[in-house]
From TrEMBL:
<dbReference type="GO" id="GO:0020037">
    <property type="term" value="F:heme binding"/>
</dbReference>
<dbReference type="InterPro" id="IPR017972">
    <property type="entry name" value="Cyt_P450_CS"/>
</dbReference>
<dbReference type="InterPro" id="IPR036396">
    <property type="entry name" value="Cyt_P450_sf"/>
</dbReference>
<dbReference type="GO" id="GO:0004497">
    <property type="term" value="F:monooxygenase activity"/>
</dbReference>
<keyword id="KW-0479">Metal-binding</keyword>
<protein>
    <submittedName>
        <fullName>Cytochrome P450</fullName>
    </submittedName>
</protein>
<keyword id="KW-0503">Monooxygenase</keyword>
<keyword id="KW-0408">Iron</keyword>
<comment type="similarity">
    <text>Belongs to the cytochrome P450 family.</text>
</comment>
<keyword id="KW-0560">Oxidoreductase</keyword>
<dbReference type="InterPro" id="IPR001128">
    <property type="entry name" value="Cyt_P450"/>
</dbReference>
<keyword id="KW-0349">Heme</keyword>
<dbReference type="InterPro" id="IPR002397">
    <property type="entry name" value="Cyt_P450_B"/>
</dbReference>
<dbReference type="GO" id="GO:0005506">
    <property type="term" value="F:iron ion binding"/>
</dbReference>
<dbReference type="Pfam" id="PF00067">
    <property type="entry name" value="p450"/>
</dbReference>
<dbReference type="GO" id="GO:0016705">
    <property type="term" value="F:oxidoreductase activity, acting on paired donors, with incorporation or reduction of molecular oxygen"/>
</dbReference>
Length: 372
């Protein structure tokens, strides 16, 4: 059965969709909404309190069209495949600088998986290098908000600190009279465009910084873990670097950063695979299960970097398809390709790995490796 019910205390029944085709249908169906203002009272109150904990106003991921269309249109040009490809030499330069001189045992997240996407995103937004250590702390505190057992004071601290940072930035940043697409960074471009409220602007900047690096950290670290524990696939990628784009797609499918989609709620009764989900119900796609749907993928639990037909849901689907997917793919290709070519004997330095407690994201706490 690819659709299952789960009782959530205080929220009622949520529906978990585990099949690939059913998941694609859910993520593309306009009868399922991300706007909690259209939801029943309990869901609306829960979403409001969660947003307050994180000091996040309304943002791109919480809107339906037409507001979602307007907000996405303001940033999508910065993440087109062509513009992202222009960033590849810079990503390679950063990666080479981070890897130069490394030897012995290192934490791969500290050494590369975190600083590469964080540096790229900060440069895109025009944020100072000196502030990146703070961003990592605040981002980690905010990520704890997905854990229902987490200390809410810690989550609130991260949210308030990051929001205060961007409030101060927006209040004091200099923006000249050039058109938005001629501004030196995305922050100034968004301010110059002038098509967002102040709250939308600050929330967008918070979202871009957080989402623009966190999932890529996990994609790089999970991907390298999968390759190190599948040495034949590691060796094949080293012999066939032309497989790198295909390999990254398989790594996203096999053990990607997104485990469960953001919840949606039904605006009316919706039938999926013969199951009627009542109006006002919460629905989530279990991406990790859909990406290993045995009816869709041959031998789904096997890592196969030559897998050609790979229509996974690792970057979502529909109007909320990840706007930064091209950037994440490019950064993962650069990072993983560089590690495989530079360190053919890289291996795990521990037998037990620790994972973050996060029902939505598949995230390692650390990834100790011996570079060889």
């Amino acid at each position: 059965m690819s659709i299952n019910e789960l009782e959530v205390p205080g929220l009622g029944t949520t529906w978990l969709v585990t099949g690939l085709e059913e998941g694609r249908a859910v993520l593309a169906d306009p009868r399922l909404s991300r706007d909690e203002r259209k939801a029943p009272d309990a869901l609306r109150a829960f979403a409001h309190n969660h947003r307050a904990d994180m000091s996040m106003g309304r943002h791109l991921l919480d809107e339906d069209p037409p507001d979602h269309t307007r907000l996405r249109g303001l940033i999508k040009k910065a993440f087109t495949p062509r513009r992202v490809e222009n960033l590849r030499p810079r990503a390679q330069e950063i990666t080479d600088a981070l890897l130069d001189g490394l030897s012995g045992e290192v934490d791969l997240i500290d050494a590369l998986a975190f600083p590469l996407p964080m540096t790229i995103m900060c440069e895109l937004l025009g944020l100072p290098e000196a502030d990146r250590a703070d961003f990592r702390i605040w981002g980690a505190e905010l990520a704890m908000g997905m854990d229902p057992t987490a200390d809410r004071a810690t989550v609130e601290h991260g949210g308030k600190a990051l929001r205060a940072y961007f409030e101060n930035l927006v209040a004091h940043i200099d923006v000249d009279d050039r058109p938005s697409d001629e501004q030196p960074d995305l922050t100034r471009a968004l301010i110059r465009a002038g098509r967002m409220s102040h709250d939308e602007l600050v929330s967008m900047l918070m979202l871009l910084l957080l989402a623009g690096h966190s999932t890529t950290v996990n994609l790089i670290s999970n991907g390298m873990l999968a390759l190190m524990t599948n040495p034949a696939q590691f060796a094949l990628l080293r012999e066939r670097p032309d497989l790198l784009p295909q390999a990254v797609e398989e790594l996203v499918r096999h053990d990607g950063p997104l485990q469960v989609s953001l919840p949606r709620h039904t605006l009316e009764d919706v039938e999926i695979s013969g199951v009627t989900i009542p109006a006002g119900s919460m629905v989530s796609v279990v991406v990790s299960a859909a990406n290993r749907d045995a009816s869709r993928f041959d031998d789904p639990d096997r890592l196969d970097i030559t897998r050609a037909d790979n229509q996974h849901l690792g970057f979502g689907h529909g109007v909320h398809f990840c706007v930064g997917a091209a950037l994440a793919r490019m950064e993962a290709q650069v990072a993983i390709g560089s590690l495989v070519s530079r360190f053919p004997n890289i291996r795990l330095a521990v037998t037990d790995l620790r994972w973050e407690v996060n029902p939505m994201l598949r995230a390692l706490v650390s990834l100790p490796v011996r570079l060889g």
